[in-house]
Write a structure and sequence with these properties.
By secondary structure, the protein is an alpha/beta fold. It is built from 14 helices and five strands. InterPro entries: NPHP3-like_N, P-loop_NTPase.
């Protein structure tokens, strides 16, 4: 009997270890690799955060997929991180996967299903044992299509759990979050910057993104599973095609566009004000900035949260003078050019920061 138990335990361990080799730990919402990940302040993005949480918690709604789209820098990842934290606190977070084009461990679709299955497996031992059984039955499952992985590692284990009557299914954590779908590439070891992909690479990336959306539709939405899936992405080809009239997700997805409907100006003002006040306490000078300074920076941001976040990081750099850096940033701000192109101010900001860093290196 002892030999049998030892062999059984060894078998289980081997199956779970194989799963662990095919997941992306850096993609977890609480991964150390994402330490200090951007998230919304308590009194910012209140309207859109409330809308997302209301959708997640309304389990009677027939739409079990939410697609949030927005331009780069509009705050999608910060919202996803905030929602992930709230769902985790409410014990309804089933799994989360944060893609990043610059991290080769979490910029491809092949690890998404395994990583989600790993997190779901931690919620109940029977779910976990069903995943292990699937991996033992077919060790090559991780090289199969996304749909095949999803069927074997998520759909069947959940059906086994439901048939077992060992748990009230309504209590199983059901929120699944996927951030940055547009940053999903075709294969590993491609160029880190998606803007530098050649035509074939870009098409392959789009195919993988479309494949993931189709698998979610087929495996989760078309099956009687209680999961509610929240996807955030730039409105790239795969997402636009799926959501447009006639697309696979057009009638089944709840859509949120981070546009003028959710004016972030007030949130950005509070974001900078709170942080500038904190800097004032640190340097012992609460008058180092003015309200007009903040209004100027918020206007230049053109609705892009990444603009004010980048400004704060630049101004608050250690061993630098916040007042001097604020003065420098204000000299870079050009409203006329910003109106000509929505991202002119952001382009100018990055360019000037790079030039400033170069000049500082040369002067040493």
């Amino acid at each position: 009997m002892d030999v049998y138990i030892t062999h059984l335990y060894s078998d289980v361990l081997a199956g779970w270890q194989l799963l662990l080799k095919n997941i992306a730990p850096n993609a977890l919402h609480n991964s150390s690799a994402r330490y200090d990940a951007p998230k919304c302040d308590e009194d910012t993005r209140v309207e859109v955060t409330r809308e997302i949480m209301d959708w997640i918690q309304d389990r009677s709604s027939p739409q079990r997929l939410l697609c949030m789209t927005g331009a780069a820098g509009s705050g999608k990842s910060a919202l996803q991180q905030t929602i992930a934290a709230r769902c985790a606190k409410a014990d309804i977070l089933g799994a989360a996967f944060f893609l990043s084009s610059t991290d080769p461990t979490r910029n491809r679709a092949s690890t998404i299903v395994g990583t989600i299955a790993y997190q779901l497996g931690l919620k109940h031992p029977l779910f976990q044992s069903s995943i292990i059984a699937a991996v033992k039955r077919d060790p090559l499952i991780f090289s199969q299509s996304i749909q095949s992985q999803m069927e074997g590692l998520i759909v069947l284990p959940f059906e086994n759990l439901r048939r077992s009557a060992q748990i009230d299914i309504d209590t199983f954590p059901y929120a699944i979050l996927i951030d940055g779908l547009d940053e999903c590439k075709g294969e590993p070891n491609h160029t880190a910057d998606p803007t530098h992909l050649d035509g074939d690479d870009r098409l392959q990336a789009e195919d993988r993104q479309a494949e993931l959306l189709a698998a979610i539709r087929h495996c989760i939405l078309n099956n009687d599973l209680p999961f509610r899936v929240f996807i955030a992405s730039r409105p790239e080809w795969a997402v636009r095609t799926a959501l447009k009239p006639g697309g696979d997700l057009h009638q089944v997805a709840y859509c949120i566009q981070l546009s003028d409907k959710y004016d972030a100006s007030g949130d950005m003002y509070r974001y900078l004000q709170r942080r500038f006040e904190y800097i004032g306490l640190q340097i012992g000078n609460r008058q180092w900035y003015t309200d007009n300074n903040i209004h100027t920076l918020v206007e230049a941001a053109s609705g892009q949260f990444i603009y004010v976040a980048t400004i704060f990081k630049y101004i608050s750099e250690r061993r630098a003078s916040p007042a001097e850096r604020l003065r420098i940033v204000l000299t870079w701000t050009s409203h006329e050019q910003q109106r000509a192109r929505p991202f002119e101010a952001l382009d100018r900001l990055y360019t000037n920061i790079f030039f400033d860093c170069e000049e500082r290196v040369r002067s040493r």
